[in-house]
Amino acid sequence: MNKQEQLQKLNDEMAYSCTCELKKTATNVVPGQGSADADILLIGEAPGKNEDLQGKPFIGAAGKFLEEMLGSIGLSREDVYITNTVKYRPPKNRDPLPEEVVACWPWLSAQVELIDPKLIVLLGRHAMNRFVPGKKISEDHGKVFVHTVDGLGTRDFFVLYHPAAALYQGSLRKTLIKDFQKIPKIVEKIKKRKKK
Ligand code: URA
Description:
The chain is built from nine helices and six strands; from the N terminus they run αββααβαβααββααα. The chain is an alpha/beta fold. A six-stranded mixed sheet has the order 1-3-2-4-6-5, with helices on both faces. Helix 1 runs antiparallel to helix 4 (98-115). The protein is globular. The two termini are 30 Å apart. 41% of the residues are buried. The structure holds uracil. Uracil (URA) is lined by residues 44-48, 51, 57-58, 62, 84, 164.
């Protein structure tokens, strides 16, 4: 089984066994999308309405913006892997509850382990809080944190504003676009470091 097939199998098994309460109200599960061999794993908050209907992450307005930013650094959705802290839409797009994030954690953590990306891009404060707690997005966006996470070892995390939060806010939007441009150099630097 190649890595992509292994990831598909993992997502199928987790969709079956996940104990998240959000499963009861969601239309579809949104496991994630992209390459199992990706250098970059992007993690958002939770699926919204469009994502819930189509079973794919980031396909609404925020997703289009994310795709544009990926395009600006020469990447497409297929070159990265995109997922969320929870795999089911919270009713009325409310924030995911801590227990929902906990319930979906074995799934997210297994995705990180299997994909084993060079860089994990945390989109917004929910994803940030799960992996690098104690940070403030207004101060820590655009920064890399090398952080040890239980069960996942020491990894490189890059904090960004959430595309949905920045989409319609001129200054945040500019900041996010600018921060996003840093990604290729960060990945190159990590690759060089890991070769040593
Ligand atoms: N916002 C997210 O955080 N994730 C999605 O998949 C869509 C919108």
